[in-house]
TrEMBL record:
Name listed for the protein in its UniProt record: Class II fructose-bisphosphate aldolase
Keywords assigned by UniProt, alphabetized: Metal-binding, Zinc
Coiled-coil portions: none
Biological process terms in GO annotation: carbohydrate metabolic process
UniProt remark on cofactor binding: Binds 2 Zn(2+) ions per subunit. One is catalytic and the other provides a structural contribution.
Binding site for dihydroxyacetone phosphate: 191, 220-222, 244-247
Annotated Gene3D superfamilies: Aldolase class I
NCBIfam families to which the protein is assigned, alphabetical: cbbA
Gene Ontology MF annotations: aldehyde-lyase activity; zinc ion binding
Superkingdom of the organism of origin: Bacteria
Length: 306
């Protein structure tokens, strides 16, 4: 879908995060992982009158058997069919390949994430700047990552290393890349917390924010206590403005069906209608809970000016 043909309420990440930081809440970046669950995320946002982000990572696309175009087409179809009017961002999460980023932008994504965090600083800057230059030329926002965010399930990323973000490097990185948002490593991890428990290095967050005006992103939002997240969002001078939530949604979906094993997107699409609706209801309830009790974004949709 070409940029000029997008519904007015489908916005860029930059626009969404500017408003979130101004109002003191965070946008939930929800990954439904299965295309039939996109509707559930959007319904929750509409019911809560909340802006939100619908996302999927490059690795999730491969694991669940989805193309960027299939995901985007379902997103825009549901926007129309469900009469969604709240502000929504369509975001491509962790991606290392510029070809996938180009495909996503062509498909109608309004935000992309380049993840070269495993590279040395100079190479990360070079890759992130390339992605930012290209995306900005298409009117699309860009998120990048500095430091390495750990994982427990290897669904979104393929590394379990963790390297905290250096505030001084963050200042240089943002200045030289011109990215719109920065995912920082400060104690959270992708996946389910089992042995290791989540923590947030608030002093590190504040130090990063004091050196750069870029909007901050916290990955690994599933399983983080609400009070811990609230403090990170409301740090003086601007805290976290985007929180990624993926695992909690899939666990709610599978749990509602009495399943533990993940399925492919095709398997999900072929579920009986009653099971699909049961799964959607569980995902919708989870998103509503996060919006209301975790992110502080309920009833913030009306503050946007399209």
């Amino acid at each position: 879908m070409k940029l000029q043909n997008k519904p007015a309420n489908v916005i860029t990440l930059k626009k969404g995060l500017e408003q979130a930081e101004k109002e003191g809440y965070a946008l939930g970046s929800f990954s439904p992982r299965y295309t039939p669950m996109i509707a559930a995320v959007l319904r929750a946002g509409q019911k809560a009158n909340s802006p939100l982000i619908v996302q999927i990572s490059s690795k999730e696309l491969v694991r669940y058997g989805i193309t960027p175009k299939e995901f985007a087409d379902e997103f825009y179809s549901r926007i129309e069919a469900e009469n969604i009017t709240v502000p929504v961002v369509l975001h491509l999460d962790h991606t290392k390949d510029m070809a996938v980023i180009r495909d996503a932008i062509e498909a109608g994504f309004t935000s992309v994430m380049i993840d070269a965090s495993e590279k040395e600083l100079a190479a990360n800057i070079a890759d992130s700047k390339e992605a930012a230059d290209y995306a900005h030329s298409k009117g699309v926002s860009v998120e990048a990552e500095l430091g390495m965010i750990g994982t427990t399930d290897f669904v979104e990323t393929d590394k379990d290393e963790e390297l905290y973000t250096d505030p001084k490097e963050a200042e240089q990185f943002v200045r030289e890349t011109n990215v719109d948002a920065l995912a920082v490593s400060c104690g959270t991890a992708h996946g389910v917390y089992m042995v290791k428990q989540p923590k947030i290095d608030y002093e590190r967050l504040q130090a990063i924010r004091s050196l750069t005006p870029v909007h901050l992103v916290l990955h690994g939002g599933s399983g983080v206590p609400a009070d811990m997240m609230a403090k990170a969002i409301r740090l003086p001078g601007g805290g976290v403005s985007k929180v990624n939530i993926a695992t909690d949604l899939e666990l709610a979906f599978l749990g509602s069906l009495g399943r533990e094993e993940r399925m492919t997107n095709e398997e999900c699409r072929n579920l009986p209608a009653d099971q699909l609706e049961k799964g959607r209801a569980a995902v919708e309830a989870t998103v509503l809970d996060k919006i209301t009790n975790f992110l502080g974004s309920k009833n913030m949709a009306d503050r946007f000016d399209f």
